[in-house]
């Protein structure tokens, strides 16, 4: 049975890094501190850096990192996360995920601009562009996932849109023990989410707080 | 050696209940869910309800509740927390803490209005009203505390004022696993607090996240 999953990073004050696609570092300087514990995990080092030595943390952070990469068959993301806003008029722009994006399944990019043809990439990822209602895109992604889960990959505004519409089964927020004082709000307009989902809180060795909302 | 302590309640999205002194329930309807785990502790039941049966939770929530009531020799609070804004023109108003307030030591009320004479109450509490700089009030409270700690008791704006001024040694925030979507912001203007204080995160059986900033 397909479940719809969202993973977010937050500070104690409820902000995630606000991406700036036109900056040298498009995720912004706050992204590093927000995700430091995640980047230190064995899974992340292996999947992202190709580190096969087995180095990296192995506690609760690692447990969440490992499950992040498991059981997903399709993904939905906002246009900004694909990088579409950076090159809105370039039909050859293939996103900022590199020649071999780390997905390996269909990725549905939500856009309000004109439809684009799909882009097959090395490694099994295909970027599809959709202008329809999020419910319709989710229905299509669910079929494409073939019984695996669908991830709503972000950005945070897209994730909150799915959450507010009641479309998310599993929300995981990794809260770094830092105060950012700025960024994109993670929790806006989600009052009462604990009444539709079961909440669990855990703390990792890194001090990261893992909050899950499950239904 | 006197330490300056602050204890706050927050939701996951960084709000605490915004008091409305003119409402029937001056702490607001969000105060109950925010403090439910605290109200369930053995210490709270004993200190506030006079329940001497020993009933109540005994885990991490209780540990923080017990230390809340230990080792404080003076307190500073904002005028709103005394209830001064509700009756600004009534010189006989003695606050909303009842005939025998639960302090038992000097309580310095910060006010911008005209100075008032101090109010001695049953049980050892004396309310003092001060219009000076927070550093001066803290110096006076520190002397009054006689080697015990000084609590900055709130509200949250007063607490943040002391935090921003670098006057707080120990901040404890009890984060309830709920999303309020409204209220008084707990963390505003505190970016980088983790660089001046050591942060520790723990989770209680209730799901409450206890974050402490210590220096």
Automatic annotation (TrEMBL), chains A, B:
Show the InterPro entries listed in the entry: DHFR-like_dom_sf, RibDG_C, Riboflavin_Biosynth_HTPR
Under Gene Ontology molecular function, one entry of this record is: 5-amino-6-(5-phosphoribosylamino)uracil reductase activity
What Pfam families does the record point to?
RibD_C (PF01872)
Q: Ranges for the Bacterial bifunctional deaminase-reductase C-terminal domain?
A: 4-195
Q: What is this protein called?
A: Bacterial bifunctional deaminase-reductase C-terminal domain-containing protein
What is one GO biological process annotated to this record? riboflavin biosynthetic process
Q: What is the lineage of its organism?
A: Bacteria, Bacillati, Actinomycetota, Actinomycetes, Micrococcales
